[in-house]
Amino acid sequence: MSPSIRAFIPKKVIKKPPAIDDSAFHRRRALDSEDGGQVIADPDADGDPHGRLATWIRSHARHHIPLKHPHTRIDVFISAGLYQIVDLDQRNNLATVSAYFDVHWNDDFIKWKPEIFGGIERIFVPIKWIWKPEFYMYHSVYGRVPDYAPDASAELHFNGKGKLSNLDGKFGISSKSWFE
């Protein structure tokens, strides 16, 4: 007698395509027909102009200060606003405040021609793709301003203007030096 092999062979599971194509929902794209369009970049969408622009920005943006010549400077503009005074420690002359910052600058390495990328004049990209300015508060107890949120996005314009909006955080400020 020859040995017989008995085994259970499962049928192949056939996956049916979903009734609704939800890939468009995952792209997180919000179009605005005014001002050249407001788009959150999706580098996986190479077929459309937004994906091509996102890929181009990712390859041309620099993670170090964007200067073409080491003897030039980059101007960073900062506006600050105070949300609230969280805590006031009169004994130690410390105030903890909640504030926000709007930061913008010009980056010569991320200028593009809108006509090449379907007329797109501005786009939102993750801040981990680009150089971000670091700034320090003069009277801060804890040193510099906290890091940017990892999921934040930067607004980039075709002329090289970069903008980070609504950076918020809590800061301890010493008031000793104000009155001495």
Feature tags:
180 residues; mainly beta; Acetylcholine Binding Protein, Chain: A; 5 strands; elongated; Neurotransmitter-gated ion-channel ligand-binding domain-containing protein; extracellular ligand-gated monoatomic ion channel activity; Neur_chan_lig-bd
Anisotropy-based shape: elongated
CATH topology: Acetylcholine Binding Protein, Chain: A
- Low-pLDDT regions: 18-39
Residue fraction in strands: 25-35%
Structural class: mainly beta
**First-to-last CA distance:** 104 Å
CATH architecture: Distorted Sandwich
Largest sheet: 5 strands, antiparallel
In short:
This is Neurotransmitter-gated ion-channel ligand-binding domain-containing protein. The chain is mainly β and 180 residues long.
Explain what the structure shows.
Strand 1 and strand 2 form a beta hairpin. Residues about 20-40 have low confidence and may be disordered. It is elongated, with a radius of gyration of 25 Å. The chain starts with about 20 loop residues before the first helix and ends with a helix. The chain has helices spanning about 25, 50-60, 175-180; strands spanning about 75-90, 95-105, 120-125, 155, 160-175. The protein has about 180 residues and is mainly beta. The protein has a single domain (about 30-65, about 75-180), classed as Distorted Sandwich (Acetylcholine Binding Protein, Chain: A). It has a five-stranded antiparallel sheet with strand order 1-2-5-4-3. It is built from three helices and five strands. Helix content is about 10%, strand content about 30%.
